[in-house]
Amino acid sequence: MTGALLEPAEKRARAEIGRVERRSLGTVSADAAAEFARAAGETSPRLVDPAHPAFTVHPMYLVSLLRGAPGAAPEEYRPDGMYRDEVPGTDGLDVRLMAGGQDVRFLGEARPGERIEVRRVLESVERKGKGAGFLLLTVVKTYASERGPLAEVTERFIVR
């Protein structure tokens, strides 16, 4: 991709810096959390059996949630399979996206039956590399319930 083709993505992303987006992720399901834990290779009954008296939601289940209800419409996806609005400033542009790293800070424990909301903010846009280079976007997501923040995730996306 030439620098000229990357410029619209950079301009649009920079216009998004600091804008707060909120999305409801629905209610934590014990069954879905247990299924996630099993898929992650967990075997402890407290993570995989919702009927266990000490059942707890796997901490990474919360940060794996991108949408509230399953069954997104086809138009919500990019050709590469990502959600169209997952990487700020890139919807509808012919750019290549890659995950550029993730830091997770756990602040609390999600509980079955809790409603979860995610707050997302694009913190920075940096031009990197030589020639056309690429963009490095840093997004911070805060997952919370009525009790307060549960996790903060800093994600980096590479846009080429």
What is this structure, in a nutshell?
The protein is α+β, with helices and mostly antiparallel strands and 160 residues long. It is built from 4 helices and 5 strands, in the order αβαααββββ.
- How helix-rich are the residues, as a percent range? 10-25%
- Oligomer designation: single chain
Strand count, sense and barrel status of the largest sheet are: 5 strands, antiparallel
Flag low-confidence runs.
Answer: none
Instruction: State the strand order across the main sheet.
Output: 1-3-4-5-2
Strand content bin = 35-45%
Mean pLDDT: 91
General form: elongated
- H/E topology pattern: HEHHHEEEE
Count helical runs: 4
Question: Nearest-angstrom radius of gyration?
Answer: 18 Å
User: Which structural class best describes the helix and strand composition?
Assistant: alpha+beta
- Separation of termini? 6 Å
List how many beta strands DSSP finds: 5
What can you tell me about this protein's structure?
With 160 residues, the chain is an alpha+beta fold. The protein is 21% helix and 35% strand. It is built from four helices and five strands, in the order H-E-H-H-H-E-E-E-E. It has helices at residues 3-16, 30-39, 45-48, 59-64; strands at 20-27, 97-106, 115-128, 134-145, 148-159. Strands 1-3-4-5-2 form a five-stranded antiparallel β-sheet. A hairpin with a 2-residue loop joins strand 4 and strand 5 (148-159). It is elongated. 21% of the residues are buried. The mean pLDDT is 91.
